[in-house]
User: What shape does this take?
Amino acid sequence: MKLMFASDIHGSLPATERVLELFAKSGAQWLVILGDVLNHGPRNALPEGYAPAQVADLLNTQAGRIIAVRGNCDSEVDQMLLHFPMTAPWQQILMENQRLFLTHGHLFGPENLPALNAGDVLVYGHTHLPVAEKRGEVYHFNPGSVSIPKGGFKASYGILDNNVLRVIALNDQSIIAQMTINP
Assistant: This one.
């Protein structure tokens, strides 16, 4: 299974256009959105091309191929614009020998792990910082932010393909981080 991950869109129309362009080319079956879809939040500056209603319209074109979780900047009002469910605080994707635990990162995250088994993958956003590493028995993966990167990193997204998780720069496609997960 090939998956694409995007987090912390924060209503940026140019970032959404780029994500959907890359998703169309990726061959991924699902676009996993890790929260903070339409709103920028009180701690963030407005992202480039802030247009939440247009972002919703664009994402709705792929509604049947999106798996999403709620971020700390998402609300029930946002769900009214989106044609895919995005109010669950977490989701799981079950693979043959492990699971991907999908969350935004503000409820569950590296400092507050859910109950996971050895070899499971915690997939989260929220920090806007890319991560691809094994910590103890659990893999941690954060694709960074597609709209408001932090820590000197480039805007980025993630791909899971053939048991390799990669964080990839949104614009120049350079690899920021990667790891192989054991099936």
About this structure: Helices lie at 13-26, 52-60, 76-81. The two ends are 12 Å apart (CA to CA). The longest helix spans residues 13-26.
